[in-house]
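Late entry, written up from scratch paper. The run itself happened at the end of the previous shift, but nothing got recorded in the book at the time, so transcribing now.
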Amino acid sequence: MTVAATSGAERHFRALESLYVSAPVNALFSSHLEITGEGTARIVFDVTEDVYHAAGAAHGTIYFKMLDDAGFYAANTLVTDRFLLTTSFNLHFTKPIRLGRVVAEGRWVSGRKRVFVAESRLIDEEGDEVGRGTGTFMRSHIPLSGLPGYRSDV
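Output as recorded:
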């Protein structure tokens, strides 16, 4: 890999991180995305009581949000021209999430043309896996360069 290719990839990764911050929905969560390399993404979430269901643990929508985002960004590291869309997502709950830091780790599994498959897992502060998911993501007609949040200069 040449230096120019590496710097182009790094610019794309930073622009994806900027895109994450710019999404209005992410203002609702205390979270931070790190693109750790091609086909990988890591998001750190601070889970608070604000996202609890009536029985005192994080609602399933929070699991989905964390797992989907990690898989999506892992897959979108491989696509520099288009925004991906989630077309399906399967998730498994393995432990209730309560207060604390949760890390969502996403990893691209297959696909490089139109459809991408990525898996993700959630790790709580105790180091336990609390959820796992697999998503299918498809190229959209939306150019990344047309999205105001997709900026590598931040």
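The first helix runs from residue 3 to 22.
(Scratch paper discarded after transcription.)
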